[in-house]
TrEMBL record:
It comes from Flagellimonas maritima. PROSITE patterns: CHORISMATE_MUT_2 (PS51168). This is chorismate mutase. GO terms for molecular function: chorismate mutase activity; transferase activity. Its EC number is 5.4.99.5. GO terms for biological process: chorismate metabolic process. It is an enzyme of class 5 (isomerase). The keyword Coiled coil applies. It comes from the Bacteria. Keywords: Coiled coil, Isomerase, Transferase. Residues 267-358 form the Chorismate mutase domain.
């Protein structure tokens, strides 16, 4: 499959002065709740009103969505506010019902993108549609699964396409609910520069106070839009309470975000520069993260050495590491001098950590 401008026509035709905004509650709960939030969002930058009708819950027994009745509420939203509507579909029956109720944008959730069978079923059910279809990244950090889903839909003659980056699950404890792994989104953008990419900071962070920063990073990386879960009473939401923001807070976030527009040559230069800088920022964060992890491992070695009463510095081991890293560095275009200086600094920090443990 080739990159195609056709995929982003739906977005370009909207000629938005700001990134695309999809907002609304994680789940449709009651008719009043759906309509009240929609009215709150009516005269804002919001372009599509989202509400989950069928909720894919990892464990059974949680609220699993109101089902088809909620689609009637979304129709009312459209009639009363003029907002276009969006919901998640996870099988053929969902697609048929959503189309019957004239939902404008359908998205495939992270738990569905992992399954080529389900993606194919949805693609077949949607064949030839002119609705907008967005594909969330799979739960696991697997770029080909994500691309494969795009290809399945594109081959089913669905041309109004896009993807949603909602982060990836990990066994590690991090400050995120789903770690962004920005480099995967960047790789996808470089393969398909015209495929619209929307960021979902709500599911990445899992916490409402981190949403602004993640949204800003996404815009700096040239994302085309944001999907932000919004509820008038977030704390009492029936799902994803910790990550939803109020409509007022959403308006504030949209006001405060630095939004870059590519109008002339200078803007394009700035945009490219910002994009590269954002990539550097992502990598720098990963460097610090990795170094922190290395020192924790080092602490573990310090504890072992203390039990055994062994000296901190073991120079044969150190020389072996250095030799290997100089070769690795060479294959990455790093000079021997740089690798030596960097590893001396890392080694010194490691020794400091271990000495602290041994002298405790
Ligand atoms: C959602 O958007 O409410 C949702 C369930 O998201 P995800 O598929 O990203 O978990
Ligand atoms: Mn949610």
């Amino acid at each position: 499959m080739e990159n195609s401008k056709e995929m982003r026509k739906w977005l370009d035709d909207m000629a938005l002065p700001h990134p695309l905004v999809i907002a609304g509650p994680c789940s449709a709960e009651t008719e009043d709740q759906v309509l009240k939030i929609a009215h709150n969002l009516k005269d804002t930058d919001v372009n599509y009103y989202r509400a989950g009708i069928w909720k894919p819950r990892t464990r059974p027994g949680n609220f699993e969505g109101v089902g088809a009745i909620g689609l009637k509420w979304l129709q009312k939203v459209k009639d009363e506010t003029g907002l276009k509507t969006a919901t998640e579909v996870a099988n053929r029956a969902h697609v048929d019902l959503a189309l019957e109720h004239d939902v404008d944008l359908l998205w495939i959730g992270a738990r569905s993108t992992v399954s080529p069978f389900i993606v194919q079923e949805i693609a077949d059910a949607l064949e030839g549609t002119d609705k907008i279809v967005l594909i969330k990244n799979p739960v696991n950090p697997d770029l080909s699964l994500w691309l494969g889903a795009v290809e399945r839909l594109y081959s089913a003659d669905i041309k109004n396409l896009g993807v949603i980056h909602r982060g990836f699950s990990t066994y590690e404890k991090t400050k995120y609910r789903n770690i962004p792994e920005w480099q995967l989104a960047i790789e996808l953008q470089s393969k398909f520069p015209d495929l619209p990419i929307i960021n979902d900071p709500s599911h990445i962070t899992g916490k409402r106070d981190m949403i602004f920063d993640v949204s800003q990073t996404a815009l700096d990386l040239n994302f085309d839009g944001l999907m932000i879960e919004t509820h008038y009473d977030p704390d009492n939401a029936w799902s994803d309470a910790a990550q939803q923001v109020t409509p007022q807070r959403l308006v504030q976030i949209m006001n405060d975000l630095r939004i870059r527009k590519e109008t002339d040559e200078e803007a394009e230069y700035n945009s490219k520069l910002n994009n590269l800088r954002a990539q550097i920022d992502v990598i720098d964060n990963q460097l610090i993260d990795t170094l922190g992890k290395r020192m924790k491992v080092s602490d573990g070695i310090g504890k072992l050495k203390k039990q055994r009463n062994v000296a901190v510095l073991q120079s044969n081991r150190w020389n072996a590491i250095l030799g290997k890293m100089i070769l690795e560095g060479e294959s990455q275009g790093l000079s021997e001098e740089f690798v030596l200086r960097m590893f001396k600094a890392i080694h010194q920090e490691s020794i400091n950590h271990q000495e602290k443990i041994i002298n405790k």
